[in-house]
Amino acid sequence: MLRLELRGEMSQPMVYLSPIFAVILTFIAGIIMFTFLGVDPVKAIITFFITPLNSLDGLAELFVKATPLVLIAVGLSFGFQANIWNIGAEGQLTIGALAGGGVALLFFNVDTPFLMPAMLVSGVLGGMAWAAIPAILKTKCGTNEILTSLMLTYVGLLVLSYLIHGPWKDPDGQNFPESRLFHDAALIPIILDETRLHLGWIIALFGVAVAWVIMTRHMIGFQIRVIGLAPMAARFAGFKEKHIIWMTLMISGGAAGLAGTIEVSGPVGQIIPVISPGYGFTAIIVAFLGRLHPVGCLFAGLLMALTYLGGDNAQIEMNLPNAVTGVFQGMLLFFLLACDVLVRYRFRIGSLTKATGGANL
Amino acid sequence: MGDWLVPALLTIITASTPLVFAAVGEVVVEKSGVLNLGIEGMMIVGAISAFAVGVTTGSATLAIFAGAIGGAAVAFIFGFLTLNLLANQVAAGLALTIFGLGFSALLGHGFVGKTFPGLPKLEIPIISEIPFIGPLLFGHDILVYGSVIIVISTTYMLNKTRVGLLIRAVGENHDAAHSIGYSVNKIRMACVLFGGAMAGLGGAYLSLAYTPLWVEGMTSGRGWIALALVVFASWKAWRAFLGAYLFGGITIIQLHAQGFGVEIAPEFLSMLPYLATIVVLVLISRDSSRAKLNAPACLGRSFHEAG
Amino acid sequence: MISKKIILGALLSAVMAVGATVGQAADKRTKVGFVYVGPIGDHGWSYQHNVGRLAVNNAFGDKVKTTYVESVPEGADAARVITKLARSGHKLIFTTSFGYMNPTLKVAKRFPKVKFEHATGFKRSKNLATYSARFYEGRHVAGLIAGKMTKSNVIGYVASFPIPEVIRGINATFLAARSVNPKVKIKIIWVSTWFDPGKEADAAKALIAQGADVIMQHTDSPAPLQQAQKNKVWAVGQASNMAAFGPKAQLTAIIDDWNAYYIQRTKAMLDGTWKSQDVWGGFKSGMVKMAPYNKAIPANVVAMAEKAKEGIFNGTVHPFTGPIKDQKGKIRVPAGKTADDGMLAGMNFYVEGIDATMPK
Fold first, then answer.
1. C294, C331: one domain
2. How big is chain B by its Cα radius of gyration, in Å?
């Protein structure tokens, strides 16, 4: 019988090979699915994974789409390592976008190079403020953050809806629900002409680097990992749990808020009723696909972004309904997650007797 | 005034029932130590399975079963990934939601615009006609009564039976449960399938009774609310029931308040169910610091059976 | 993941090179693209636009190939999808939701040779036209029927968001209903969503419980109509003929019909006569239609509705004919005048007599 056996340590080759296995398996399953649907499978897979990247514009779009996913996922991975379950990044993104975009609307006619940095800072603070509510409730009252952060997401979206249908409506916009278009000083600079690639992508890369340093080189990163792996030991070592709760929620909330501000001041350019198509939720998958490692989040974010671009492409070039994209995306994720098992475990035939404990998240 | 009260209370029952099913199912899943964030995905697959079978066969009974089976079928994918292949539960659950939304849309392609007559009502002559109590207690469809029965039996099962003990044991300490000879992953798989079937029933209630029709994405985030209600309930089935009725109740009350001309921006009224759930949970968890201890200790941790 | 990219990239770019040379040769059809905000399975707004797209397919056969992208979020993604359509050789692109206005404008600037059409917006350029429908004409007819059919004198309205389009519909309904029934009242519930069948049904139920016996809706799903059927009250369908969901309840439905417009604009593009314009079509252009009237409506009411429809068609009836006062009693449209399009497009007040406060 086929069994899983725990490896002594993480398999380095498998860290890189398992995603390849996953993609190959997805291709095979995709070929079966597309054939079943009566679609040319090879063309479908090329349309999904290759055509989106065959132009400079395509690459730029990939980075634009990946920017919020990577930023949020990197932020979330701190909390997830410490078993702090912030699943309300979507709400923090929204409030961050409102805080950052609000600065742009408040200083609508002020043309100063300080405006953009002020917006970004305000966005981070906005996201942090929204994440502070679960943090306070968890540290003061012991309220579970899964519930509070999730419920606050819906509240955040309704705050956005209220502002955009009311006070922040464009005065010259015929009462339609959108803010004024930000003027140039409030728009994040484009870094590649003729595309939409903006400075936000560089900020995201910078975020990955900073997170990597904090996680591997800094005391906080160490404490977070210990708390996640061995909470008792952490308490024994005198790490303050409340401190970590605050720290991780502020990092993830701030990152989500930053991502929100970058969205409204970048590709969107104004505040609109739908700022994010669920980046805050998708980023949770990205964080785990990236194995809660900043560099992993970067690649996972790019891969996830690619599937969205591929989905557009499949609709445009092959007339495949959006539903097929969802199914295909789901399959890819299933295979990626399934193949990850090979990093820590190997398949063995026959039975073994050595007992070991559960694997961690 | 009284004219609207009974219909309003009936609406609350309808609004809460899908949440009850999904939340109670997830309570059992999480009690066994598995965190499945894919409730939305299982619900919507349940909704289309039930609707498709209902429309095709014309049988409400078959439709209800199909809903449960559809939910359980996609839950099996999740169970296989997380239990057998030890994939990360949080990510697999979210992937299940993406998959389920797409898959249901694909299945439902030919069913947009079709109708289903709804579920038959259980009327009891004379008693159903007692004012106020009659319509509130009688005249519902089978799934409404089913949701109450599920809550009672799940509560009993978790607390008073050996099966419940096993579930709690693998959720609290899977190593210990394993070492005294229980098959952790088999028990967990059973719970995952149960959770899937319940989410599927919640979805079936939506597409067969609540709004008997099929449109893509018709669960509209109810799976997420159910997830939050499990936490609200601190992993107790009967409290999940109360949570669902609290959430459903405030949703309906705010709609009625608008009809009566309450002058508050509708967005703020729409926030009420979410805020109320937070506030009530905070009040409860303040009272007893033990509340958080109800979280199963092994929640979200996969178990590798090396033997 | 790095190695994966390299290997697969090398492998598949070879395949792609072959595929590209083989695949591209044959297709000479002119491409027309559509961008939808919802899934085509929503049985509402996007569904009706897709019906229009299929009409284009039928009308032009081998000459035109249509493409659609569904469920495109109104944020950053919209511009990407529209750009992609423009880049992949589509000559005419319809973007069918208000939120696509600025993205469409941006992309239209970048692709001056491609023609764009944006539904419900107000920004135009040389290669960007706008189009919308005067659904309020349909609301007027529905309002007349509702005013006559209600026994409780309460019309219930399930509303989505307080934008001019929705406010205009509420006002048109109320003015028409009041004109035939001075006792009529309107109750409005905002559900803060375009699409959530459950919540729409809940709102309809709340309205019925509070005495409404005609349900109107400005949300996308047939759920409110179903509730009306269940509770034996009347309702007016939205976007498409929803009679299947409530054959007894549906008085009529206000149908969005984009078929003729899409065919006409595609033809103009093919002929080279396409020009940027602003079309706001109603009964006359066929963009707005009424579904068959319910058999239960008395003949004189049907005659009245038909007469109003004809009047609007001929231009002798305007749903917003003065004197129209707002809730504060201020005259917005003087007696003998009709509301101009600018005012209609930006409408943000309730007319006098509506007993509710507009959400701000």
1. yes
2. 20
Residue C123 sits in a domain whose CATH number is: 3.40.50.2300
Q: Are C192 and C124 contained in the same domain?
A: no
User: What's residue C65's pLDDT?
Assistant: 94
- pLDDT level of residue B2 (50, 70, 90 thresholds): low
| Rounded distance between C-alpha atoms, residue B54 and residue B50, angstroms | 6
**Within-domain flag for A358:** no
Specify which residues C186 forms β-bridges with. C155
C195 neighbourhood in chain B, CB within 8 Å: 215, 217, 220
Nearest by CB: C102 against A16, A17, A270: A270
Residue-wise pLDDT tens digits, C254-275: 999 999 999 999 999 999 999 9
Number of domains in chain A: 1
Distance from the A154 Cα atom to the nearest Cα atom in chain B, whole angstroms:
7
Number of domains in chain C: 2
* Domain housing C341: 135-253+289-345
| Secondary-structure percent of chain A, ordered helix, strand, coil, rounded to 5 | 70, 5, 25
Spatial CA neighbour of B236 closest among B195, B277, B295 = B295
Nearest-neighbour CA in chain A from B88: distance (Å): 6
CATH number at B80 reads 1.10.3470
pLDDT tens digits for C163-207?
999 999 999 999 999 999 999 999 999 998 888 999 999 999 999
Beta carbons within 8 Å of C61's beta carbon, 6+ residues apart: none
- Neighbouring CB atoms inside 10 A of B176's CB total 12
- Can you name the residues that pair with B121 across neighbouring β-strands? B141
Selected residue with higher pLDDT from B128 and A153: A153
B84, B94, B222: best to mutate for the A interface, most A CBs within 10 A: B94
Q: Does A28 touch chain C (CB under 8 A)?
A: no
Of C19, C70, C345, the CB nearest to A43: C19
| Chain segment C49-59, per-residue pLDDT in tens | 999 999 999 99
Q: For chain C, say whether B239 makes contact (Cβ under 8 Å).
A: no
Minimum CA–CA partner of B41 in chain A: A330
ipTM surpasses cut 0.85: yes
- Quote the pLDDT of residue A351: 54
Are C71 and C183 within one domain? no
- Residue C196 distance to chain B (closest CA, Å): 6
Q: Which residue among B211, B214, B261 sits closest to C201, beta carbon to beta carbon?
A: B211
Rounded Cα–Cα distance for residues C284 and A82 (Å): 64
Percent share of chain A, pLDDT over 70: 96
- How many contacts does A have with B, using Cβ atoms within 8 A? 181
Does A42 contact C15 at a Cβ distance shorter than 8 Å?
A: yes
Residue B14 sits at the chain C interface (C-beta within 8 Å): yes
Q: Do B85 and A337 touch (CB under 8 A)?
A: yes
Is-cis flag, bond preceding C222, omega within 30? Answer: no
